[in-house]
Amino acid sequence: MTAPAVEKSTTLAGNVLTPSGWVHGQIVFGQRIGLVDGKWPVDPVSNRDPYILPGFIDLHVHGGGGSDVMEGGDAALTIARMHARHGTTAMLATTMTAPSIEIEKALVALAPNCERRASGSARVLGVHLEGPYINSGKLGAQPNYVRIAVAQELERYCTLAPILVMTLAPEVTGHLESIRAIAARGIRVQVGHTAGSYEDSVAALESGASGFTHLFNAMTGMHHREPGAVGAALAHAEYAELIPDLRHVHPGAMRAAFRTIPRLFAVTDSTAAAGMPDGEYRLGSNIVTKCLGAVRLSDGTIAGSALTMDQALRNLVQSVGLSVEDASNRLSFYPAEYLSLKDRGRLQTGAWSDIVVVDRELKVLSVFGEGECLWAR
Predict the structure, then answer these.
(1) Which has the closest alpha carbon to 59: 165, 153, 155?
(2) Which residue among the candidates 58, 68, 245, 269 is catalytic per the annotation?
(3) Of 181, 219, 312, 354, which one has the greatest count of Cβ atoms within 10 A?
(4) Which residues does the UniProt record annotate as the domain Amidohydrolase-related (predicted)?
(5) Where are the domains of the chain?
């Protein structure tokens, strides 16, 4: 009789960020975390040991490593492997506004990547459907294949791949009813690419919307007599996305949002240009140019980003002024909570071993996804 295989375990030592705060000690894990042990509480600044953080969870990823989600084929695997090298251990593959046949093609290609995690890659948890149910007056870098949400089309998409997040413009005729129906399926609905008013966004939240897509960008801004979608988010939201690449949003605006939205979390909104040199890349059916770290359409419109989550961590700490713990929560814990994932985004016994180790300059030393070493310096 063959003895059952014994799972190998790994031990890391340093400043471990747990849901209860910092522990100076060790974490022992296989596919799941077996033990977190050490001195608690501890001030991680008082020693020079590395930070051991929960793996980053990015809920808005269009591309990376030269590949775009809308390409289909093996694009999702290339993207998930590139982002894993930068600390992302779980992600949502994000589609673009496009004709229905192109969205369906992308979803069919994504489905097997959502069912299993390939070696060396981040876990693709599911899909963020960004468009086509948006406002043509707030396209941002989305191609203009905008249309009104129709139940039959939505049902078709949901049969092809697990859609976990969907972006809609609530002011479009019929979309409040769509928000109610989508939220009833357990899909997180986000207000985004909207020319609607403060009242439209509040109505969306009351109808079941739970967040805002890339806060401040591609939505009506805040004015003291017309608060807009931004004002509704600042006044009422529990969750919202933010792109902390220091180009989409000024650090001062970020600080204001962090003070008012309790579980504001970071996303990259990354394109195929992430992890690549300057040059031209695809973003859905559009061509974008990466130059000096920014990604733009030919008319100068910001078109997603080249951001990675490790750089987001550094930006939040070094440029915005958050503590490492607060920044980590906005990269891992809050996105996990948003999707009701109780075994990701936290370092505690029984959780998946999604772990990022960074040095004192917040540069990645190693990344583990479900216990596998995905990358090491």
Answers:
(1) 165
(2) 269
(3) 354
(4) 51-360
(5) 55-344
